[in-house]
Amino acid sequence: MTEIRRYELLDSTNQEARRIAAKGEYGPLWVIAESQTEGRGRRGHNWISYPGNLFASLLVELESPFETCGQLSFVAALAVSDVVAEYVSSVEVSVKWPNDVLLNQRKVAGVLLETVSSGAASLIIIGCGVNLAHYPRDTDFSATALTEIVEEPPSPEEALTHLVAAWDTWYEIWRKSSFDPIRSAWLARAKGIGEKLTVRLGGAEIQGIFENLGDDGTLLIRTKSGGTERITTGDVFFMD
Ligand code: BTN
């Protein structure tokens, strides 16, 4: 079983994993905190970190080159979606590119993957935030928490047990068979294939139809011109 380090309060579990790595520990280990003062989201966003939700980061040494590490955010999204599906019907759970988890079309969890170079080692930190008991109201995306559906949401500790097991399962699949089965499983759970979406990146916007997930994890969208754009970063909004 992978080591778990538990904290009452941290700035960010990803930041603590980074400090651990800087001291020469390469994991694998999970860092979990009851609350965070500086929770980080993707693309420089804050992650509002109310106690009662799950804040967990895995520090792990990558055996393969850094180029493949983005694939692990899809591995993590699958693991986190399994955690959510433990408590609700799986038809209510979906994933949204690149690695959001949705419950009834609203964001219930997110994944933040960061890399660390430490000497010759390639380390990654995979931070998972799951809204179990609370969710923020004033976000760009509509958010939710498990407590909206289940009367008694699980404790962070219980949710972590599922996360550790689900991560181990999907990571093993990735290690043995690479990205193909991960990509297929992610696509089977993906929201909005064939639907219209907008990708926002800084001030720019691209609109198109969600066509597919590239074999490198890029988002493939068909634009008005009929061409396919490969999107490597950005926030996705579906047009309801
Ligand atoms: C996103 O923007 O969707 C990613 C959110 C990731 C939040 C988690 S909470 C645990 C870990 N520590 C952080 O500071 N961020 C991640």
Overall CATH architecture of the largest domain: 2-Layer Sandwich
Number of strands: 12
From the 3D structure, determine the CATH topology of the largest domain: BirA Bifunctional Protein, domain 2
| Number of structural units classed as domains | 2
Percent strand: 25-35%
Distance between the termini: 43 Å
* Spans where pLDDT lies below 50 across 5 or more residues: none
Q: Name every ligand kind in the structure.
A: biotin
CATH level 4 superfamily of the largest domain: Bira Bifunctional Protein, Domain 2
Helix content: 10-25%
Please write the CATH class name of the largest domain: Alpha Beta
Mind describing the biggest β-sheet? 7 strands, mixed
Biggest β-sheet: strands ordered side by side in the sheet: 1-2-3-7-6-5-4
**Structural Rg:** 17 Å
In terms of structural class, how would the helical and strand content be classed? alpha+beta
Order of helices and strands: EHEEHEEEEHHEEEEE
Shape: globular
The number of helical runs is 4
Mean pLDDT: 94
Explain what the structure shows.
The structure is a single chain. With 240 residues, the protein is an alpha+beta fold. The protein has two domains: 3-189, BirA Bifunctional Protein, domain 2 (2-Layer Sandwich), CATH 3.30.930.10; 196-238, Roll (SH3 type barrels), CATH 2.30.30.100. It contains four helices and twelve strands. A seven-stranded mixed sheet has the order 1-2-3-7-6-5-4, with helices on both faces. A five-stranded antiparallel sheet has the order 11-10-9-8-12, with no helix packed on it. Helix 2 crosses helix 3 and helix 3 (156-177) packs across helix 4 (179-189). It is globular. The termini are far apart. The mean pLDDT is 94. It binds biotin. Biotin (BTN) binds at residues 12-14, 36, 39-42, 45, 47, 55-57, 100, 110-112, 127-129.
